Amino acid sequence: MSVIARQIVLARRPEGAARPDDFALAEVPLGAPGAGEVLVRNLWLSLDPYMRLYMADSGSIHGSVALGEAMPGGAVGEVIASASEALPVGALVLSMAHGWRDHYLAPAAQLQPVSADLGPVQRWLGLYGLTGVTAWGGIHGVLKPQPGETLFINAAAGAVGSIAVQLAKRAGARVIASAGSDAKCAWVQELGADHAINYRREDLAARLAQLAPGGIDAALDNVGGSQLEILIDAAARQGRIALCGAIALYDSANYRAGPRNLFATIEKHVTLTGFNAGFYFPEASAIIADLAAAEAEGALTDTETVLEGLDAMPQGFVDLMAGAGRGKMLVRL
Ligand SMILES: NC(=O)c1ccc[n+]([C@@H]2O[C@H](COP(=O)([O-])OP(=O)(O)OC[C@H]3O[C@@H](n4cnc5c(N)ncnc54)[C@H](OP(=O)(O)O)[C@@H]3O)[C@@H](O)[C@H]2O)c1
Questions:
Q1: Using a 6 Å cutoff on CB, does residue 325 contact ligand 1?
Q2: Whose CA is nearest to atom 42 of ligand 1?
Q3: What's 39's domain CATH number?
Q4: Ramachandran region of residue 283, left (φ > 0), alpha (ψ -120 to 50) or beta?
Q5: How many beta carbons lie within 10 A of that of residue 205, not counting itself?
Q6: Per the structure, how many domains does the chain have?
Q7: pLDDT, tens digit, for every residue of 179-222?
């Protein structure tokens, strides 16, 4: 079997925010799989903020995408031709590299077989994949909230944030969330947040001082930049901050830039812990079991924003970065 694969390539490195025409469509003929390989038809593609880092030539720990090269990313697909006993035709597979395209050839050993028994297959990109493992790692691996503690989460209506809000509530914390619109704030309160702050309209520092006059015990920071500085100032003595991401800096020349008020962590004995979901993947089956239990208890709702078709990827990515989605943003092929 051979197919013409359609894939989205990087056409231009963005200056500032990514734009749809930073991407282009390319067609690539794929032959039959060689020994040990499989041909996969993607069913679901993931959209994630880290993809912005691949688009820069400074590179992240993941490296950079060359101009004209297909964008990498997560995908769940179905094997449609196989030269591997490990993955027969019909097997469902997760790839963390072969997103942004409709078909690909890859060694079976690079792919993770996944099952539809645990719910919709796209969950391997969301609740049971990078998103859920990250939220669980931030809340239970790093912050370990105690009942009654005040815990803050920003980008709370996003993929990681919306799961993290619910896990923190289930652990008994008092949750303060922030998001970029009143509608998103209302929604994160429906998910269980005790308070929600629209950071675009309200003064985040002033609202935190009002809602947590004794300081914040724990915070999950998805945003970085000036919001991280506000969190450091708002932290209680011996507070702890889990550094999950810095989306506010991904469009800038140095997304690794640190906060300017680091000394306050010394004054207040505040712990900043950077964490990477990759460190939690060895425990993924126990984490997934806990997420499934939370859902079965009624303590967790999984929310997706679903776009249709490969051509939706470029605009979808731009919209993700600008805050258009709720929960996990995915593209169905
Ligand atoms: N450490 C890890 O292993 C790991 C793994 C996955 C993700 N992450 C990080 O976790 C964060 C969230 O990722 P996600 O997949 O869940 O994406 P997401 O939250 O679903 O989408 C990003 C959200 O960030 C908000 N945002 C964008 N620019 C912002 C700004 N300048 N200031 C404040 N908020 C801004 C937007 O929501 P609003 O409308 O609310 O502004 C947007 O919806 C990202 O920083 C990501 O890189 C880390």
A1: yes
A2: 323
A3: 3.90.180.10
A4: alpha
A5: 15
A6: 2
A7: 999 999 999 999 999 999 999 999 999 999 999 999 999 999 99
What range defines the domain where residue 225 resides? 130-279
C-alpha 71 to ligand 1 mean position (Å): 19
**Residue 70 falls within a domain, yes or no?**
yes
Q: Is the CB of 273 under 6 A from ligand 1?
A: no
Residue closest via CA to ligand 1's atom 29 equals 248
Are 217 and 237 in contact, with CB atoms under 8 Å apart? Answer: no
In angstroms, the CA 115 to CA 156 distance is 29
Same domain? 265 vs 145: yes
Residues 150 and 254 in one domain: yes
The whole-number pLDDT of residue 6 equals 98
Of 247, 250, 273, 306, best ligand 1 pocket probe by most atoms within 8 Å of the beta carbon: 247
Residue 60: the pLDDT is 65
Per-chain mean pLDDT for the chain: 97
Q: What mean pLDDT do residues 300-309 have?
A: 98
Same domain, yes or no: 106 and 190: no
What span, in angstroms and rounded, lies between the C-alpha atoms of 266 and 246? 22
- Cβ of 159 below 6 Å from ligand 1: yes
My answer on whether 147 and 69 are in the same domain is no
For the stretch 10-64, pLDDT in tens is 999 999 999 999 999 999 999 999 999 999 999 999 999 999 999 998 756 667 8
pLDDT for the residue numbered 2: 82
Taking alpha carbons only, the member of 244, 237, 304 closest to residue 273 is 244
Which pLDDT tens digit goes with each residue over 115-127? 999 889 999 999 9
> Tokens for 166?
């619910």
